[in-house]
Design a protein that fits this description.
With 321 residues, this protein is α/β, with parallel strands linked by helices. The protein has 11 helices and 10 strands. The strands form 2 sheets. A 6-stranded mixed β-sheet has the order 1-2-10-7-8-9, sandwiched between helices. Strands 5-4-3-6 form a 4-stranded parallel β-sheet, sandwiched between helices. Bound molecules: pyridoxal-5'-phosphate.
Amino acid sequence: MLPRIQFAHLPTPIEALPRLSEALEGPQIFVKRDDQTGLAFGGNKTRKLEFLLADAKANDSRTLITGGAVQSNHCRQTVAAANRVGFDCMLVLTGEKPARPTGNNFLDQFLGAEIIWAGSGDREQYLDATFKQAEKDGKQPYLIPYGGSNEIGAAAFAFAMKEMLNQDPDFDWVIIASSSGGTQAGMAVGQRMFGYQGQVLGISVDNPAVELKERVAGLAGVTIRTLGEQDEFYPDEILVNDEFLGEGYGIMGAPEVEALTLFARYEGLLLDPVYTGRAAAGLIELIRSGFFTADQNVLFWHTGGTTALFADQYMDALSAQ
Ligand SMILES: Cc1ncc(COP(=O)(O)O)c(C=O)c1O
């Protein structure tokens, strides 16, 4: 059994979205509220951090180090988890310090992270240098990979699948936003270990499907072996759709704006502009193109990120609606 420090609010609720389902004239849509995992506005990384923080503790670490985009939800949840457990936290972020931090970046600073700005340089190099310096300074650092996506973080989503099956085993589809792949890899493991009969489809947020399938399959293999089963996964078993990449990572286009608006105005449900907005735009397009049948039950797994709505650029775009 992997060590775990429990701070997430689990199980997250599953809710029906009847008004949205009716408006789209498609399958029955449900949502799993991982935007409600509880830690500083929650999200999918909170589940991963329960296992990563326990591992950091078992390694006698004192400082968490991770990296991401300026509006990284992973970084916001990592500094909150660090505070919860009593670690220091250093974040290596892409770009320059904004004149007025907003959204997740405001929260990173408010929660007290030490932020290292990588400018236009290679963030991974900065991360590596920051880690080595922290070691020299006696900070006992623990490196959390991008998105918390290693076998320890991903394992959390194997257990999340079990949680879903205990709530309702009858979803034909699970739809998620997939990026660094840990969430989808963990779900693939959970699907196999706990016998989920439906299908998991990752809507890629930023990577070509070939690359993401390979990454998810590789990580799912290491994760299932970490959980004690000698097994492996092949890229062809992993379902990824990369038709919704739009103008690129973090760029909210018309499909995301429509998705955010429909979820908000039919169901009072807030999505985020980068991940769940893109996945929901994919879901809507798949419904319109007849991908699902009307009698199917589709679970949209809300992985969080709504704090990014309050980043200046997204507020400006959405206020224009
Ligand atoms: C809100 C949200 N959804 C989905 C994802 C994607 O999860 P993963 O990186 O495990 O693929 C992220 C990752 O940052 C996220 O912040």
